[in-house]
From TrEMBL:
Name this protein carries in UniProt: protein-tyrosine-phosphatase
Stored CDD domains: DSP_fungal_YVH1
Residue span(s) of domain Tyrosine-protein phosphatase: 4-153
Keyword Hydrolase: yes
GO cellular component: nucleus
SMART domains named among the record's database cross-references: DSPc
Pfam assignment, any one: DSPc
InterPro entries tied to this protein: Dual-sp_phosphatase_cat-dom (IPR000340), DUSP12 (IPR016278), Prot-tyrosine_phosphatase-like (IPR029021), Tyr_Pase_dom (IPR000387), TYR_PHOSPHATASE_DUAL_dom (IPR020422)
Domain Tyrosine specific protein phosphatases intervals: 71-132
Family, per entry: Belongs to the protein-tyrosine phosphatase family. Non-receptor class dual specificity subfamily.
Gene Ontology MF term list: protein tyrosine phosphatase activity; protein tyrosine/serine/threonine phosphatase activity
Catalytic residues, chain numbering: C96
Sorted UniProt keywords: Hydrolase, Protein phosphatase
Length: 359
């Protein structure tokens, strides 16, 4: 199974590196372009100048970043298939070492980019029709799922979800070394995905001074476990965020993304510590943070964890009007407060604090 044609209208082929040694097969197939998805020196291959070549030097490991290459490879393959040589359409071979993981991932990304009707599962099934060994590693499959959820953007680097994913990779590397990350991504200072949504918004306030601490776009919902035994946290999912349950009676903490008011605590570079109310006249101890993660009282493991104790904050539910958000948080809505301007970043400052920057 040196060379496998992907079913469909495109002249797209997947193979391993030894396919390049089979000159007669390449010639009879009419390959014009080659995408190499591995680290290799191709100087020993004969007649290499016959082919237009794109090299993507990556390893076949779960935490390798292939997501950032999807647009470069996708646009290159698209152009190669259309233009080819001598006025004819091109035929593209995508290969890695075995034609199993890396090359299949790049091929799937192309299919997702060009054919929106494809899901990650259907793209893989299509390739497996002619190449049963096709099986990207778990990390690449997760990147493909994220790519599809992002809408296969042409500018991947600028997409907020890609930036968040990159940051999570940094956190993984730091935690593997037993250290806090060198930088902290404060969600209220980052560009957020907008959208139209409606529903109720939750606002968390310090119980002692009533300072607003967080709103719905920055809260992390999680599903309480049936038992108190915490599941093993996935190293590829540094922030647990599952569908919200009907209620959270069992939970004694609110979990949220890092926000700029936490900067004094997080800038210390410690793996864990306490969180204080940002109001200098209050400074009440309202929660904790732990980069290595912590177990909620309901049994769910959150990694990393930034928590507010329910006994130290008040939870206010507000009705959110349907609005087109510009720079809203990941949940896509803000409170449309009558008679009061909306604050940037989705967090509304309490009276007397408006115009004084981020919380």
């Amino acid at each position: 199974m040196a060379l496998s044609r992907v079913p469909g209208e495109d002249e797209l082929y997947v193979g391993g590196i030894f396919t390049l040694r089979r000159k007669s097969t390449l010639a009879s197939t009419g390959i014009t372009h080659v995408v190499s998805v591995l680290k290799y020196d191709f100087k020993d291959f004969e007649d290499w100048e016959k082919y237009a070549h794109l090299s993507v030097e990556v390893d076949d490991v779960d935490d390798e970043n292939l997501l950032g290459e999807f647009e470069r490879t996708g646009s290159w393959i698209e152009k190669a298939l259309k233009e080819g040589k001598d006025g004819k359409k091109g035929k593209v071979l995508i290969h890695c070492a075995m034609g199993k993981s890396r090359s299949v991932t790049i091929t799937m990304a192309y299919l997702l980019r060009q054919y929106p009707e494809h899901t990650v599962a259907s793209a893989l099934s299509l390739i497996q029709e002619s190449r049963p060994i096709a099986e990207p590693n778990d990390g690449f499959m997760a990147q493909l799922e994220l790519y599809k959820e992002m809408g296969c953007p042409r500018d991947i680097d600028a997409h907020p979800r890609y930036q968040r994913w990159l940051y999570r990779q940094e956190v993984d590397v730091a935690l593997a070394a037993g250290m806090a990350p060198e930088r902290v991504r404060f969600e209220d200072e980052e560009t957020q995905e907008g959208g139209i949504s409606e529903g109720n918004e939750v606002e968390l306030r310090c119980r002692k001074c009533r300072r607003t601490l967080a709103t719905s776009p920055y809260l992390i919902t999680h599903l309480p476990s049936a038992s108190k035994t915490a599941p093993t946290p996935s190293p590829k999912s540094p922030i647990a965020s599952l569908d919200p349950p009907p209620d959270h009676i069992a939970c004694t903490h609110h979990f949220l993304h890092p926000l700029s008011w936490m900067r004094p605590a997080l800038d210390q570079g410690l793996l864990n510590g306490r969180l204080e109310c940002p109001n200098p006249k209050c400074l009440a101890q309202i929660g904790r943070y732990a980069w290595q993660g912590m177990r909620c009282s309901c049994g769910v493991w959150i990694l990393p964890a930034f928590s507010l104790q329910k006994g130290r904050v008040d939870e206010i539910t507000k009705r959110a009007e349907k609005v087109q958000s510009q720079g809203a948080g990941k949940d896509g809505f803000r409170v449309a407060s009558v008679g009061a301007p909306e604050e940037a970043g989705g967090i509304r400052l309490p009276p007397g604090m408006r115009g004084k920057g981020n919380l």
